[in-house]
């Protein structure tokens, strides 16, 4: 038995495994160690290479069964991808030119996550080109320097709000703005070239205090085919002097640059050089063609009503100089520092007055003086309390205003001064209303111009017979200046009265009533003025009728076919022959019926003056748009007249903007860049 047990042990027991050397042990692919033969004198095999990650380009491609070919996810084009020959280079080259891939990228870039206060997210569209254009428009409208797009604050804002937006440099910004300007300019030149639009102009000259350059601005006004009043700055260029020949040359160059061949009126201020400039302009511009000017430019010169009104009121305010200065000094004291303003506000509270706005006037602008006097008059009680209770206020007027003259300040305003100021404010109210009407440039002002002039003249006539001597002297001095510019048609452009006729609420009846009120009924002056206006309207209407009527094809009037001698051809029937004959007869005599449009318009009932509940002014252009088919010739006459500007404020307003564009930090801008920014800014403001 012991021998059998030994036999079993020998069967179950395996010989012990001999330990292997380090060289004989290595890992297989699965990571498990397996023996390998001793190398002995042989070199060790190279380590197995690790598999590299797939190239990122494979995100846009799918591999076919053939490992050497792939196809694009966007255009399904087959691209080679043999790793032993070309690798991924063909795929990289294809994705750079794939249009479908670029479209996909643009769509993905336009998707932006936007959230509300509740944390809800939604995808909104993002257009990088539109956003970049909006940035350029912001630079123009807000009068920002081009370096704004490179500022750290703007870059940080874009990174936080719109990370995918790529900022650009100031040079790119200026190039984009120039491109926008050239694009709009070409579109407007095409409009003038195709539609042959007749334009009314306004112009003025400004000297920049920073660069000392003289800038001349020219603004165009017209009513388009949709009966909308349009306004564009056509030129903002440097001129050498203020001479008439220089101004005329600049006008001609501007119109030639834009391709404008028809001009109606030019509104300028009352400087003598403008008279000479318009005379030279008329002689040169008439050579362009027969339709370049209306009536050979007889009515082209339009004097700025706002400038005339400024001259009239300026003479009147000289008579009340002391009272105005006294109130101005009082307002200046209150606004000089916070403690004085607080003291004045305390007096307003005790008098139960609302202080509101208390502006200080600009001495050279009478309308700002009117607003200052009107506001101060409402706070008269508070100023009187300041005089009675505030010692510092009274001591202010005891100080010497100027060391050289050693004169004390005028004021404080006494009770009689306040009474005179009260009468002056009532007197100037009609002038201020007229200034506001004349200064509008985005609405039709030509139809309202004569109404304001008549109201001013009637007020001057009444005040010139006032029992108060000071008021009478003031009104007399202002009326002398008024007669110099607006006394009848001898000193007034008749288109001022004609424009009021094209208001369907007025027609000729309003002008006739004005003549009766100013000159009396059935007077020689009344009849002469009425006949002159009617003659001008009829004459100008005949010109429009002649230009717009179709020319007759027949060369000789005697060749007109007569009904009794008319012979039909064999291939025509009776009905067609008579209609053809009738069309020819009507074509020859059509001009006789067209002359009734003016008479028809003047004899029809005027439109009712219904007050607009929303406070909007009456829209004359909408009425003519609706009635254009009824008055095809007269409406063209009205289109040109309604575009006339009563003042040159549209051009002067550009100078307030240019003063900010050409500030000390932007004085290095070239004249071309200044003109471009001015034109673009007005265009963007009008389109908003």
Description of the molecule:
The chain has 688 residues and is of the alpha+beta class. It is 53% helix and 10% strand. The longest helix is centred in the first third of the chain and has 26 residues, at 170-195. The strands form five sheets. A five-stranded mixed sheet has the order 10-9-8-11-12, sandwiched between helices. Strands 3-4-5 form a three-stranded antiparallel sheet, with helices on one face. The chain has a two-stranded antiparallel ribbon with strand order 1-2.
> Count of helices?
27
Proportion of residues in β-strands: 5-15%
Backbone CA Rg: 42 Å
N- and C-termini, Cα separation: 117 Å
| Order of the strands making up the biggest sheet | 10-9-8-11-12
What is the approximate shape?
extended
Number of E-type strands: 14
Subcellular location: Nucleus
Organism: Arabidopsis arenosa
Domain BED-type: 52-105
Region (Disordered): 1-54
Which SSEs are present, and which pair or pack?
Layout: H1 2-12, E1 25-27, E2 33-35, E3 61-63, E4 69-72, E5 78-80, H2 89-97, H3 99-109, E6 111-115, E7 121-125, H4 128-141, H5 152-161, H6 170-195, E8 199-207, E9 214-223, E10 229-239, H7 244-258, E11 263-268, H8 272-285, E12 301-303, H9 305-317, H10 321-335, H11 338-350, H12 366-378, H13 380-389, H14 391-396, E13 400-402, E14 407-408, H15 415-439, H16 446-463, H17 469-486, H18 488-491, H19 495-501, H20 507-519, H21 524-548, H22 574-594, H23 596-603, H24 620-626, H25 632-642, H26 649-661, H27 671-687
Parallel strand pairs: 8-11, 11-12
Antiparallel strand pairs: 1-2, 3-4, 4-5, 6-7, 8-9, 9-10, 13-14
